[in-house]
Amino acid sequence: MQFDLPPGARGGTDLRWTLFVQPPAPSISTIGHMRKRINTLINANLRYTFGQ
């Protein structure tokens, strides 16, 4: 997994993550599940940590 922190459009910083997998690529269903799970782990849990 790679995290990028580019400058935000209105100041601040954006967070972008990229998940790299070995071929063959997972199914569309598996990709959707992985994307949802990673978003929860990174975004939702991080907000809860800071009380937002």
Write the SSE topology.
Blueprint: E1 2-4, E2 16-18, H1 28-49
Task: Describe the 3D structure.
By secondary structure, the chain is an alpha+beta fold. It is 42% helix and 12% strand. It has 1 helix and 2 strands, in the order E-E-H. It has one helix at residues 28-49; strands at 2-4, 16-18. Strands 1-2 form a two-stranded antiparallel ribbon. The longest helix has 22 residues, at 28-49. The radius of gyration is 14 Å and the shape is extended. The model has no long low-confidence stretch (mean pLDDT 86).
Q: Count of DSSP helices?
A: 1
The amount of helix comes to 40-55%
Mean pLDDT: 86
Detail the poorly predicted runs. Answer: none
| C-alpha termini separation | 25 Å
- Report the sheet-strand fraction: 5-15%
Question: Topology as H/E string?
Answer: EEH
Structural class, from helix and strand content?
Answer: alpha+beta
- Give the biggest sheet: 2 strands, antiparallel
Gross morphology is extended
Short description:
With 52 residues, the protein is an alpha+beta fold.
What are the key terms here?
about 50 residues; alpha+beta; two-stranded antiparallel ribbon; 2 strands; about 40% helix; about 10% strand; extended
